[in-house]
Amino acid sequence: MIQVSSLGAHGASAAFDRMADTYDATFTESLIGRAQRNVVWNALQTAFGPGDHVLELNCGTGEDALFLAKRGVSVLGCDASPRMIEIAERRRCQEVPKSPLEFRVLRNENADRLMPVTPFDGVLSNFSGLNCVEDSSHVVRKLTHLVKPGATALICISTRVCLWEISWHAARGNFQKAFRRLHGTTIARLGEIAVPVWYPTISEIRRSFSPWFRLRSFQAVGLFVPPSYLEPWARRHKLVLARLEAMDRVLSTWPVLRVIGDHVLLEFERTC
Predict the structure, then answer these.
(1) CATH superfamily of domain region 9-158+185-270
(2) C-alpha to C-alpha distance for 104 and 115, rounded to whole angstroms
C-alpha cells in the first residue's frame, strides 16, 4: 500500500493512473486497509474540526478528504496522478456535492505552487506519500509558507522496521523481502515502472521537519494488524484480525512498539 513517486514525475503519474481504477477495491475497501485507516481517522477527528481548512498531500482517490468534508472541514486534496484526481472529483460530486472540498493535480514537491488566500489550519499526508521523497525537508520547507503557526501536520509514513514484514517473509525463507526496509531505500515496481522508496527513521523524519515543525507524538499504524498484501490471510481470519485491531488500540503508542508497525503516524505542530 505504498504511495510513492517514481524516478520521474511522468512515470509516477502513469503508474498511479494505472492503479487508480482498482485502488479503492484493493485497498480502501479492504479489511486491512480499513483497519489501518481507522487509526488515522481517529487522529483526524481530534486534530481538525468544522471550519478548519486542511491541505492534503498525495490524496489518492479522496477517501480521507471526503471523511473530513463530511465533518465540516474544508479540504484541498492534491495528488500527482490525474486519474486519481478524476476519481476523487467524481466521488466528491456523488458523496458531498455541496462541501468546501477541492481536488488538484499536484506533486508533493510542487506544493509551493499553491497560493491560498489564508494559511491552512493543518496538513495531512497519509500512507507513505513522503516515502517518495529522498529528502522530505524540501517539501517541508514549502509547507512552512502554507500553514499558520500552531497548525497540525499529520504524517503517516512506512517505517524502517516492520515486525510483520520481517517475520512473514523470513519464515518463508525470503530474507531479501524480510529485511528490504532496513537498507533505508529500495526499488518497488508498479507494473513496468521502477519506483524508489525511502524508509526514514523517526530521528531522520524529525530532523527533516525541524525547526519549522515540532514533533508532538507518534504511534504505530499496523503494529499487529498486518500489511495490506496479507489481505487474503485477513479475509480467512476475520476474528483474529479484529483481535489484532484491539491490540493495536492498546499498544500502538508504547515505546519501542510504536516504531515497528507497517506505518507510523506522526503529529507535528508548526512552530512560530
Answers:
(1) Vaccinia Virus protein VP39 (3.40.50.150)
(2) 13
